[in-house]
DNA sequence: AAAACGGGGGC
DNA sequence: GCCCCAGTTTT
């Protein structure tokens, strides 16, 4: 049996059309007004395991008060907790924002490092966060794999991988470079509205006909 | 490999 | 009421 293959050109084109209606993700909103690498790092840290509407409001409240390592490091943890509530893990994230700010001041001249290794060395920064900072903050080429990108890339059969990191490297080989930047943010909004984790709305999906629906047992 | 961190929202 | 979420760290 021949494996169905989703047409990447058409997939991305249709997703762009579909995105017009949905709300832009927080990172895009911030990037659109010229976010600094530190702002991208801080808001990405807030976003972990938290829905983007909640993250967006919290990031705006925080960055309006403090948007540099100096300013964050000078704030009491309790004050940051209050600003970012109710993002998930807010007490941990408040401490981490301060900790990272201090490390940046002590070890990196108060700037966000622009290398993967140095970013991963920061507490609470994993591959997803580091990639987003490098791509959105420093304009690097790369693919940022989160749960949406991982799930949808496998569900559609664009790649076949077990971990997000494997997905990142598989996409680097499979995906034409011109799609690297739009791919992540397109899939995130698509993954929040149509291709949701459980019981996705396949009837509203532009590539429904070609999709092997790898992990889908029920669809709507 | 799996639990844990935390609270809001969907169903 | 139960399950899931723009992950990462620790066991």
Automatic annotation (TrEMBL):
Which part of the chain is the HhH-GPD domain?
A: 46-193
Q: Which Pfam families does the entry mention?
A: HHH (PF00633), HhH-GPD (PF00730)
Q: Keyword check for DNA-binding, yes or no.
A: yes
Give the co-factor note.
Binds 1 [4Fe-4S] cluster.
Give the enzyme's main class according to its UniProt record, as a single word.
lyase
Tell me the residue numbers annotated for binding [4Fe-4S] cluster: 195, 202, 205, 211
Q: What does this protein do?
A: DNA repair enzyme that has both DNA N-glycosylase activity and AP-lyase activity. The DNA N-glycosylase activity releases various damaged pyrimidines from DNA by cleaving the N-glycosidic bond, leaving an AP (apurinic/apyrimidinic) site. The AP-lyase activity cleaves the phosphodiester bond 3' to the AP site by a beta-elimination, leaving a 3'-terminal unsaturated sugar and a product with a terminal 5'-phosphate.
List the InterPro entries. Answer: DNA_glycosylase, Endonuclease-III-like_CS2, HhH-GPD_domain, HhH_base_excis_C, HhH_motif, Nth
Q: Which protein family is it in?
A: Belongs to the Nth/MutY family.
Gene Ontology molecular function: any one: metal ion binding
The cofactors named for this UniProt entry are:
[4Fe-4S] cluster
Q: Is-annotated flag, keyword Iron?
A: yes
Reaction(s) the record says it catalyses? 2'-deoxyribonucleotide-(2'-deoxyribose 5'-phosphate)-2'-deoxyribonucleotide-DNA = a 3'-end 2'-deoxyribonucleotide-(2,3-dehydro-2,3-deoxyribose 5'-phosphate)-DNA + a 5'-end 5'-phospho-2'-deoxyribonucleoside-DNA + H(+)
Name one process (GO BP) from the record. base-excision repair, AP site formation
Question: What is the source species?
Answer: Desulfosudis oleivorans (strain DSM 6200 / JCM 39069 / Hxd3)
Identify the EC number(s). Answer: 4.2.99.18
Q: Which UniProt keywords apply?
A: 4Fe-4S, DNA damage, DNA repair, DNA-binding, Glycosidase, Hydrolase, Iron, Iron-sulfur, Lyase, Metal-binding
- What this protein is called in its record is Endonuclease III
